[in-house]
Amino acid sequence: MNVALIASLIAFVCSLSWEHSVRRYLDGFDDAIIPANTTPEQRVDAILRWMREGPPRSTGEFPTGLSNRDPETTLNYQKLLSVCGTATNAFLNLARNSDLEARRLLLLTPHRTTKHVVAEVLLRGQWIVVDPTYRIIMRNSKGEMLTRKDLQNADIFVEATKEIPYYPSSYTYESVAHVRLAKLPLDGFHLRPILDAIFPGWEEAADWSLLLERESFLALTISSLMTIFLLLVRFVLAWYADRRLSIQRFRLRSRLHRARAVFFGTPEIK
């Protein structure tokens, strides 16, 4: 148990360092592309403008071999910024780092497979749809920003997308999700109907964006939970050994205290 706990602590420190470096990287990116003292809507526009008009990015020959959940990768490869999943990943990381509430939205086929990925950003009290792949905020002909509920209306959807070149008409909003449980083995262990029955609205109740869109934050979360779990198990085992089994345990703290007294304490002269 001590070995497992030490391993989890090492993993926690490493993932914490990784997450810190990613946040520093994103801070620099945000400072470079988003002007100071801007409104939330202006911040969204600034990120989309950078994705649309920013300096050339690397044209890696094998983008499929790159990590699609690491912002230091998705922000730096042009081909990844052209794919809906990784373009949304890049947008969400920049948006969240600039204090915007943002989350991903999966557009699903009737068979519950993903056909497109967009983002939702909380602007003016509503979750507005942003399509990072096409670098746009969804708006109607009056310039009003649209929610996914608005876009479920076929006429509004056509109105919002008719001016976007080559926008597929199949990217509709009848069926959507925030979490793709089907990617788990065995069809997601059939968790969705169970979660929907036990806790309706679970996708909306929690913010899954960072866990799903940033590998470093996922690693930090898992290592933190594992450390807490192992500490609790160690405490229970120690209590059971002391109170029930009366086993004399190896107490590292007392051994270290005795070693310190021997090596660094003042010897007693009799």
Describe this structure in words.
The chain has about 270 residues and is α+β, with helices and mostly antiparallel strands. Helix content is about 50%, strand content about 10%. The protein has a domain at about 35-215: Roll (C8orf32 fold), CATH 3.10.620. It has 12 helices and 5 strands. A 5-stranded antiparallel beta sheet has the order 4-3-2-1-5, covered by helices on one side. The mean pLDDT is about 85.
Salient structural properties:
270 residues; 5-stranded antiparallel sheet; 5 strands; elongated; alpha+beta; 12 helices; C8orf32 fold
The whole-angstrom Rg is 25 Å
Strand line-up in the sheet with most strands: 4-3-2-1-5
Got a strand count?
5
The separation of the N and C termini measures 42 Å
Structural class: alpha+beta
Averaging pLDDT over every residue, what do you get? 85
| CATH A-level architecture of one domain | Roll
Shape: elongated
| Low-confidence residue ranges | none
Strand content: 5-15%
Individual helix count: 12
Main beta-sheet strand count, sense and barrel state: 5 strands, antiparallel
Order of helices and strands: HHHHEEEEHHEHHHHHH
CATH topology of one domain: C8orf32 fold
Portion of residues within helices: 40-55%
CATH class of one domain: Alpha Beta
